[in-house]
Amino acid sequence: MPVFAAENILFEQANMVTSANVGSVFSIIEDKPGYLWLGSSEGLFKYDGYEFKRYLGDDSYRSLHQDPDGTLWALGSRSMKKYRPETDSFEVFSLPGDEHKLLSGFPHPQAMVQTADASLWFFAGGGQVLQYQKTDDRWRRYALFPQNSGRETLPSVPLITRKGRLLLAIGPELFTYDAVSDTFNLLLTLDQAGVSITVLEEETSGALLLGSNRGLYRYLIGTGEMLHYQALPVKTQPGKAISSNLVTRILTDKRQNIWVGTKDGLNLFDPHSGTFHRIRHPRETKVGEFVQTLAQDRSGNLWLSGLSGLYYYAPGKMRFVIEAANPDDPHSLSHPSPWSILFDSRQRLWLGTYGGGLNVKAGNDKTYRRYRHNSSNRNSLSDMSVMWMLEDSRQNIWLGTRRGLNLYREQSDDFKHFYFAPENSDAPVNKIFSLLEQEENILWLATQGGVVRTEFTADDHALPEMATHQVFLPGEVVYHIWMSSEQEIWAGTQSGLYRLNNQGQVIKHYQGEAKVAGNLSGNMVNQVYQDKKGTIWVGTENGLNKYLPQQDTFEFIPLFGRGTLAGVQNLLEDANGLLWLVTSSRGLIVMDTDKEQVLAHYTRSEGFTFAVTLHALAPDGRIYLGTLNQGLVSFYPRASREAQQIQLTRIRLDDNEILPAPGGRFYVKGDSAGDNRQEQMSAQAFAHNSKNLAFQFSNFEYARGRSVEYQYKLEGFDEQWREAPVISRLATYTNLSPGHYSFIARARLPMGRWSETRFDFFIEYPVWRSWWAYSGYLVALGVFVYLGGRVQTRVLKKRNRALEQKIALRTGQITEKNKEITALLASKNRFYSNISHEFRTPLMVMLIPIEKILASNPANKGQWQAAYHQGQRLVKMVEHLIEFANQDKKAAAVNTQYPLDSAIRQLCEAYAGMADDKAIAFHLDIQVITPQILLTRDCLEQVLGNLITNAIKYTPAKGKVRVTVTEEDAILKLAVADTGYGIAPQYQQQVFERFSRIDNPEHGQAEGIGIGLAIVKEQVELNQGSITLSSEPGKGSCFTVTLPVIAGNEGGGELSSRSTGRLDSALAAEGVAAAGDIAADVARAQDKEKEKLLIVEDNPDLRRLLSQELGSAFHCLSAKDGAEGIALAERELPDLIISDVMMPNKNGFELCQSVKQSPLTCHIPVILLTAKGDKASKMTGWQCEADDYIGKPFDIRELNCRIDNLINSRKKLAQVHKLRFLSGQTPQGHAGGEAPLLSGSDANLPLPERFIEDIKAVVEQGYTQAEFSINDMAGGLYMSSRQLQRKTKAILQISPSEYLKQFRLQQAKVYLQQNMQAASVAHRVGFSSPAYFGSCFKAQYGQTPVQYQQSCVDGQQLACR
Fold it and tell me: CA-to-CA distance for 1074 and 1034, rounded, in angstroms?
């Protein structure tokens, strides 16, 4: 019996031959690389499993031969050609008749063989034979029959046996070649008349098979027995005889099966029984026709050529056994759509169908027993659709149908029914899709109405009875149910996957969103399966999912790539741990769960043409498939053999084709069709300018080419394997960089192993990237660097000069800009100074009268206090303005200690009058705990002041304004609420921005520039507080400020009297005391001559006010600017000058400097009054020798005190000078001629002392003359007599005439000490008469000149002095 005679042998038509127009195929041969060559009526073709390439079309090629060297020979009807792999072309092979005369006239060869000694044998008709010995290049010619023997037309049929023996059949005779005698000897002759041998074949046993036109002969060489097999009528011996007596081809395949082709089809010959098995096929296949050729490739595929085309048989393909439903056969399947399969412990096959009832078959039976639903038999099946079957641990068979649960009763061979909605057998809960057993007597059911858990009670011998049942997930359509190894129930529904514990409580509901990672790929869950390793797999309408227990999520397994979905209907694990998947549209899939890789995909190319509904694994390893209307399909899964060795079939380099040849050689083919010149490549090196490189490959799986999986990778370029399409099998690369590469291609069949091929090549480096090119580059680079350095140096020098010019120009521009900016800053500072001066002066004019009014205790004292307080606030604002103008960087905030309650009340009282003017009800509510807190300077004044001002400003007449101050949890909250116009929500954040104004046409535009609330916010944030606004248009607004409370004893800070000190000092003086002081000043002024004051002030109001305030005690002179003040001071020589700083013509600094540098006025003290109270301005004043510096506004009493102090100090100084003069001392020395009082020249003396020296020098020159007068003294000092009179009086407290008299008397004392006569001394010192001299001398010294002279003589000089 043949090895696979029992298999379903199926020859399929090779459609690729039809599409390629190959014609009628006479010969098929597979060469060493693996190509299939076909000689046909249309020429010669090469096939790589996917594409045909035509080589020869000039002849009909009936015989192909490949010698042991791999050289291919093609024998046509008119020519013989030899294949050249280096050119991928054929060349005509002609016998060298010109060189060897014995070859002349030799007929065209019909066949050829090569013997073991490498001799080539050529055979022509009529027994003509040629031998060519390659070793010595010698030809021999044999003629088995004499000429004109009548056998010239008989074909020669050669055969090389396994032992290397050459046999040749001609007609009925068989010859053998004897190498020793170099002759052909007759071996046997067929004795049947008209017989002619058509084909020779040798069995593995050594027996010869001789095909003829009279049947098949089998010659047993050992015994010499000849067996003859002929065709017989079918009725005589059906299926045992050969199909025809004309044997055309004989083939012994790799599995020792003998195939015999005849005129009427193909036979499988069994030499042991001598019988033939005819290969019958459907009528459209047409294998039962004239067999022209038989061949087998390396994969074991059989190729058969008939008159209607080429056919092949692939033993490696999966073989499917189909059991169809036959309505006329009661023992066949009852329905063509099996829906459930069960193999029980008694080796029975249970097959439930969808609409055809139940089929049961015992292990060795070939027929089925049918069970159907019979409405008249209550013990029949409850429904014709059996959806699931289960054998429990007690070997009970349970059937889930579309109308209840059935229990098969073995003894009575019938069924017991269970319903979970007995009142309605068609209820959804009675439609069962799957079953499982939790433990003995506990079943779980997946139904159309939810999950059912039922318990049964039964003893060991009785049938189970349903005790209780519970329905979980009511209303859910549950398709499948599974119990995991953790005793958890997994229920697949149309709305996702439910996970329940074994009591039916839902643990989690998993739903599908394909685009969300971790979710199921779909909501329609068809089946849940846990493999032997514990992994849970879930099949949905969109694909396969793997459960990840650690993350409690799912991973989508792409079976055909990320973008392709394939619904998974059923899951099954075989004995090898492989997972078999039934898909909705992609056939049957086998997956390796460890690698998560598809191993096999059974499609139509593998003969899989079924619409599968389920699959099951039989105990013997066979897999059963339930199909839709195609019956029951079964097969044995077999591991695929290793694929044929993959090879490169084509390499394309730009326009050139590189041909792989035997021995690992490669040839570059010409780029034109007529160019046959070839260049052999010594190494796989490609030019650097190669742009496009393409590889094509094949593994020569002719019958299963569509099932092969191809991948490729270019090492040095690709990081991962790439998939190659089966049709093209092409890998293309462009613009590869120079270097070494390895191209690797691999292929495998389903469930098979990979086979690989490698092609190493090298992309040459261009000439400009060779080592000597780099050496040249290095030299050129050195020269270039040298020359470039020189050029660059020149360029850099030139650029440096240009840059220096540009920098100089830019520096000049920056300097100019800096000057402009400096001028602008100076202008800004001058502006702030001027504006502050303009503010302070009128403020002082206002505050001084108010202070006097407050000192008199008026009846409306509260209003005057408010006015005074607001004035002080304006003064502080001016101070802030000046500080802002002078500061270069933001200074740290200085905290000030506030008496909280009194400060707030005082601030609010200041605005009460403003509220009264608009008839606004102003309320204050203070509830604070901390008596004093630390805040930044003027924080309360600016925050509350601006908020209250805005509240009154934007509240209409007769409105309300309420100020609420509370303290809670160390937080001070200040709230100012009004019933004003309100602020729309879109503007509430805008109001805190600088210069932000909200236009309100309905209520008009209030005065202001929009900076108050910005200042409030800055102050609040500076104190780490916050401000909020709640407002509604038409109802009012409420600003709430929260500030942290820092008690006065908790932090540093200066105790400032700016808020209340000046007002308190003004109010502290009692009216009576103030009146007494004024009366005392008046009385003192009456008792003495009034001192003269010069008031220099450009503001007429302030000038007039100062004159009025100081006029009671002093004689006041006034000037409107500095120039007028200087002139008036030189003319009047006042006792003190009070001057403003910022004035037209000459400012206060210039006036002070002019006064102090003038000898005429240098003795006059100067007080500067100014709004510029900054340190720099004060330093300027001191440098101008100002005697005092008072900022505006000032206290008038303070000014009085400072005036008195300066005048008194000047008087005391004048008294000192007078005493020195009267005692005879001078500025150069002490009395008695001791050390000098002043050192240095007169130019270095202070101006008052210099004046004393000057007047002394003038008097020394003219005192001896009696007519020397005051006018002469004034003329010598270049001043008027009046100016001399006032200056001498101011510096020495004596008049000029008194000074002259005292000077003459002092000089007289000197002469008297020299014993001069008194009369002579009188005339010498300038007295007009000695008598007058004597009276003056005695009045001054208490002695007459003579007495004084006598006392000096007596040694009483000390007393004289």
Answer: 53
Residue 1193 preceded by cis peptide, ω within 30? yes
Compute the mean pLDDT over every residue in the chain, rounded to the nearest whole number.
81
Question: How many CB atoms are closer than 10 A to CB 217?
Answer: 22
Tokens representing residue 369 in the block: 């027993």
Calculated CA dihedral for residues 444, 446, 447, 451, nearest 10 degrees: 60
Of 931 and 679, which is predicted with more confidence?
Answer: 931
Which residue from 49, 38, 54 is spatially nearest to 727, judged by alpha carbons? 49
What's the fold here for domain 1084-1212? Answer: Rossmann fold (3.40.50)
CB neighbour class for 516 (10 Å; exposed up to 12, middle 13-18, buried from 19): exposed
Q: How far apart are CA 71 and CA 1008, in angstroms?
A: 111
- CA gap 568, 541 in Å, rounded: 6
* Measured distance CA(608)–CA(606) in Å, rounded: 5
Which CATH number is associated with domain 895-1053?
3.30.565.10
Higher pLDDT, 1190 or 1082: 1190
Burial class (CB in 10 A: 0-12, 13-18, 19+), 901: middle
Residues contacting 92, CB < 8 A, separation 6+: 79, 80, 81
Q: Which of 1056, 812, 1029, 1023 lies closest to 935 in space, CA to CA?
A: 1023
Taking each helix axis from N to C terminus, what angle separates 900-917 and 861-886, rounded to the nearest 10 degrees? 110
pLDDT in tens, 865-895: 667 777 776 776 666 666 555 554 445 566 7
The residues, ordered by sequence, that sit 6+ positions from 990 with a Cβ below 8 Å of its Cβ are 996, 998
Structural class in CATH, domain 1223-1360: mainly alpha
Q: Span 658-684, mean pLDDT? A: 56
**1316-1351 pLDDT per residue, tens:** 877 777 777 777 777 777 778 877 788 888 788 778
Give this prediction's pTM. 0.50
- Strand-strand pairing, 465-472 and 358-361: unpaired
Residue 449: half-sphere exposure toward Cβ, Cα within 13 Å: 18
Q: Which of 635, 444, 458 is nearest to 528 (CA)?
A: 444
How much is the CA Rg of the chain, to the nearest whole Å?
A: 67
Task: Please report, for residues 810, 1028, 1267, the alpha-carbon distance to residue 801 in angstroms, rounded to integers and kept in the order given.
Answer: 14, 62, 82
Helix (H, G, I), strand (E, B) or coil at 1018: helix
Q: What is the CATH number of domain 647-660+682-769?
A: 2.60.40.10
What is d(CA 1195, CA 1191) in angstroms, rounded to the nearest whole number?
Answer: 10
182-186, 720-724, 1100-1104, 1281-1285: which has the minimum mean pLDDT? 1281-1285
- pLDDT of 1056 strictly over 60: no
Q: In what order do the strands lie in the sheet with 275-278?
A: 247-252, 258-262, 265-270, 275-278
pLDDT one-digit tens code per residue, 952-980: 888 888 899 999 999 888 888 999 999 98
Query: pLDDT tens across 34-73, in order?
Result: 888 999 888 899 888 778 888 888 888 888 998 877 788 9
Q: Give the start-to-end residue ranges of the domains of the chain.
A: 647-660+682-769, 895-1053, 1084-1212, 1223-1360
CB 155 within 8 A of CB 110: yes
Nearest alpha-carbon partner for 1213 in 1133, 1292, 1298: 1292
Are 137 and 126 spatial neighbours (Cβ–Cβ below 8 Å)?
no
Q: How far apart are CA 1278 and CA 115, in angstroms?
A: 157
Burial class of 1266 by CB neighbour count within 10 A (0 to 12, 13 to 18, 19+): middle
> What are the pLDDT digits (tens) for 742-783?
999 998 877 667 888 888 888 888 888 888 888 888 998 889
Helix (H, G, I), strand (E, B) or coil at 110: coil
pLDDT in tens, 442-482: 999 999 999 999 999 877 667 888 889 999 999 999 999 99
